[in-house]
C-alpha cells in the first residue's frame, strides 16, 4: 500500500466544496481542512504507484477551486504504538 499526503491550495471561497469533492474521489481516504500554509490536506492510499497520477494529477488537481497541489509520498508509517516501543527503555512503569 502506498500513502501520499497531498497539500492542497484552493480558492478561499471554495474550501468546503473542494474538500467534499476531493473526499469523494476513490483512493482518497481523508481530507482535512487545516490552518497554516495550505488549505486542505488529503491522504491518498493506493496499491500501485501509477494510481497516484490518476488520482492526484487527473482528479484532485482538476476539482473546481483547486489552485495547486504538492504531494509527499510516505516511505514508512509510524503509529503511536510504534513510537512508544521505539522510545521505551525497557523499564517498568
Automatic annotation (TrEMBL):
Q: Please give the Gene Ontology molecular function terms for this protein.
A: sequence-specific DNA binding
Q: Which residues cross the membrane?
A: none
Instruction: Tell me where in this chain the Transcription regulator AsnC/Lrp ligand binding domain is found.
Output: 6-77
Task: State the GO CC annotations.
Answer: cytosol
Question: What protein name applies here?
Answer: Lrp/AsnC family transcriptional regulator
What is the top-level taxon of the source organism? Bacteria
Q: Name one GO biological process term.
A: response to amino acid
Amino acid at each position: 500500500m502506498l500513502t501520499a499526503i497531498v497539500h492542497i491550495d484552493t480558492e478561499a471561497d471554495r474550501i468546503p466544496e473542494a474538500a467534499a469533492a476531493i473526499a469523494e474521489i476513490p483512493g482518497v481516504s481523508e481530507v482535512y481542512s487545516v490552518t497554516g500554509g495550505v488549505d486542505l490536506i488529503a491522504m491518498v492510499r493506493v496499491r500501485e504507484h501509477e494510481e497516484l497520477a490518476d488520482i492526484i494529477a487527473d482528479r484532485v488537481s482538476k476539482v473546481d477551486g483547486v489552485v495547486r497541489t504538492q504531494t509527499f509520498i510516505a516511505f514508512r508509517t509510524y503509529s503511536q504504538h510504534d513510537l512508544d516501543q521505539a522510545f521505551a527503555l525497557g523499564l517498568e512503569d
